[in-house]
Design goal:
By secondary structure, this protein is an alpha/beta fold. It is 41% helix and 13% strand. The protein has four domains: 2-114, no CATH class; 133-240, no CATH class; 263-478, Spore Coat Polysaccharide Biosynthesis Protein SpsA, Chain A; 495-568, no CATH class. The chain is built from 22 helices and 22 strands. Helix 6 packs antiparallel against helix 7.
């Protein structure tokens, strides 16, 4: 952590019996059987950690229980799963955090929870809040620069005179990256964190007798008045001191006794590499979004595919028999797996949630999607607009629902009460089958499907099924956005849906081009990097912001893949993970279309699996080429020398014969 200003317990609001702590929303074990197993008072379990401001008497009471509960949770290996603990590594690493929360619950300590005092670099603070602590426990980046403390686990930088962490962008460069003032504040916090770390290293080196480092522009900046002004002590603001219980009262219309309802997020996938990289992206974004509750992947697989499938550990999973090929009609329609999987999950899983959030796999979460914020209620689900579902307004709705007037053009993100979903799920499946079988009405002028293939039958199945129950939706345009498409600058969208191709200049991304590419199981493979924000046209602000959203989407996907490869134990040397985006076209060995840098990454991935560092490969190649050239030079030199000597000897013999013809003739006779 980096301390930015004073933390006085009386100013933070700490009291005897009421400590103040930062919010650790991912400690989902407070809401499930983990708390019931490890504390007699699960209802007192607070999701807190990081910053703790506590009266000494409370600490004396808590400390033994903190240690005891840590040991207890650590030994409970049966409940290390991500769906129970929220620990994406499933190694029991956060047992100490649960030890604290369960120990506090045991001794009856309830916390004042503050989500503003501490921030992870890479995130933007709430408007008006001034974080006092920077917690750099997660990787963060600014444009092409990035930092992860895990990269320096074995680093002797403290004892190595003159060594600093990689230099981040200067403040004036950050000003050019974004125009949103709050996002810019977040980037400034990121560079402030690493600059203070580097300043600390400089002072430490000097105090331990290191020679004065040579002048550089960056060192000059760290000693400048500008840097001193940027890093002056920060003090608490009213927004910083706002506790989470204050915000809860705002959301529940003054009834402070009413708790938030429990949420469960689900998304549907299949047993394929195509869905695996989408799963990696969605799960990473879920874990950093602050989304409450649990998440489950609904994985539809045939028995044959399941035997060969490698991605079981990518997400908490509910397994579903595949309906890609309909068991009765033989129709090949993988999209039907979505309603079939939801129905199977409802009928076979023990679901402890009041609201269900349904997403697609090709989504990236940017923030929490909650029923209390978007006003979902029993009988009134919330969804995002799918305006191209023109069948709601024509004969298609009249053919397939008794209440065409109740047909809503919605899809993508769905927030629905569990009671409504139980009534609705079977109709969703049946209506999907019904519309899929109605081939006479596949045409674009009826369905809006430009391919006229019946591919969006599942979407109509959803809308017509809801209409049958007269389940009308609150349609919200502020939840989801397609990267590269028209957006409203004032809206903070919660989800990227990258189902359509998007581009920035000559760079583009289309998920369909990666259908046959195994990105997840090949070390360090990632998507082509988008353009650097500093290279974009800053004259058109709306176009700039649109491009920045597209960059954010693909950067998040690549960050998710990088972390996934780290967790797999992929080995890398410096520079291996930095690859250029090349736009020329190539084909892989199977004839599948791919980008040029994809083939390079596949070669690198293959070599990584063989355990050969890229730097070693480079030198082996260099030595081979050098040796070959040297051998050719030596052969040429020897051959040329031999030829010259042969010519001289021949010339000498001819000359001797011309000088002594008589002698030679006599000798021969």
């Amino acid at each position: 952590m980096i301390i930015r200003g004073p933390m006085r317990p009386w100013e933070l609001g700490a009291e005897k019996g009421r400590p103040v702590a930062a919010y650790y929303g991912y400690l989902r074990g407070c809401d499930n059987l983990l708390a019931q197993l490890h504390t007699k008072h699960p209802e007192l379990c607070d999701k807190v950690g990081g910053l703790l401001a506590m009266h000494i008497d409370d600490l004396r009471a808590l400390a033994p229980m903190w240690l005891l509960k840590t040991e207890e949770v650590r030994s409970d290996r049966a409940h290390w799963g991500a769906n129970i603990t929220g620990d994406i590594y499933e190694k029991g690493w956060i047992s100490e955090m649960y030890g604290y929360s369960f120990g506090a619950a045991e001794v009856g300590l309830r916390h004042k929870i503050n989500d503003n005092l501490m921030i992870y670099p890479g995130y933007a603070p709430r408007e008006g809040a001034e974080p006092i602590l920077l917690h750099y426990g997660l990787p963060f980046s600014v444009a092409n620069w990035s930092f992860s403390k895990a990269d320096h686990d074995e680093d002797d930088i403290v004892y190595n005179c003159g060594r600093l962490f990689p230099q981040p962008p200067y403040p004036r460069e950050v000003n050019l990256l974004v125009t949103d003032p709050n996002l810019r504040r977040g980037l400034f916090l990121s560079i402030e964190c690493i600059n203070i770390l580097n300043e600390g290293l400089l002072l430490h080196h000097a105090a331990n007798g290191c020679p004065k480092p040579p002048w550089s522009k960056y060192l000059n900046f760290l000693k400048s008045g500008t840097f001193a002004k940027l890093t002056q002590p920060k003090y608490l603001t009213p927004a910083t001191l706002e506790m989470m219980e204050d915000k809860i009262q705002e959301h529940v219309d003054g009834d402070s006794a009413m708790p938030y309802p429990k949420i469960h997020t689900v998304f549907s996938t299949e047993c394929s590499s195509y869905f695996d990289w989408q799963t990696v992206g969605l799960m990473h974004s879920f874990n950093v979004s602050g989304q409450p509750g649990n998440v489950t992947r609904l994985l539809s697989c045939s028995d044959e595919n399941l035997k060969l499938y490698k991605g079981h550990n990518l997400a908490p999973t509910h397994y579903v028999p595949s309906m890609s090929q309909h068991p009765l009609t033989g129709d090949w329609y993988p999209a039907i797996n979505k309603p079939a999987a939801v129905l199977h999950w409802l009928n076979h899983a023990n679901i402890d949630a009041e609201f269900i959030v349904i997403l697609d796999a090709d989504m990236i979460m940017r923030g929490p999607i909650t029923p209390w914020e978007f006003k979902a209620a029993r009988g009134r689900p919330v969804s995002t607009p799918y305006d191209y579902l023109i069948g709601c307004d024509n004969e298609l709705a009249k053919l397939h629902t008794s209440h065409p007037e109740a047909c809503d053009k919605v899809g993508g993100v769905i927030i629905m009460h569990i009671d409504d979903l139980h009534k609705f799920a079977l109709l969703w499946l049946h209506k999907t089958e019904e519309v899929r079988a109605d081939r006479a009405h596949y045409s674009r002028n009826i369905t809006g499907d430009i391919y006229e293939s019946g591919w969006i039958s599942e979407m109509y199945g959803y809308s017509f099924g809801a209409a049958e129950l007269k389940l009308r939706h609150t349609i919200n345009r502020e939840i989801m956005i397609y990267p590269g498409y028209v957006f409203e600058p004032s809206i903070k969208y919660r989800v990227f849906h990258y189902g359509l191709r998007f581009s920035i200049g000559n760079w583009s991304f289309d998920k369909a081009e990666w259908r046959e590419v195994d990105i997840v199981n090949k070390c360090w493979v990632k998507f082509p990097e988008p353009p650097d924000p500093s290279t974009l046209n800053h004259d058109d602000d709306k176009s700039l912001q649109q491009n920045l959203l597209s960059i954010e989407c693909i950067k998040t996907l690549n960050e998710a893949l990088h972390l996934h490869h780290e967790r797999r134990g992929c080995h890398t040397s410096k520079g291996d993970t930095t690859k250029e985006s090349i736009t020329s076209k190539k084909f892989d060995l199977k004839g599948n279309h791919m980008l040029a840098n994809d083939s390079e990454e596949f070669a690198n991935a293959h070599n990584d699996r063989m355990g050969i560092p890229s730097s070693f490969r480079f030198w082996v190649l260099f030595l081979c080429v050098f040796s070959g050239l040297g051998f050719l030079v030596v052969i040429f030199w020897v051959h040329s020398g031999h030829k010259r000597r042969g010519m001289k000897m021949k010339h000498h013999r001819v000359r001797r014969r011309s000088l002594y013809p008589g002698y030679m003739g006599t000798w021969l006779a």
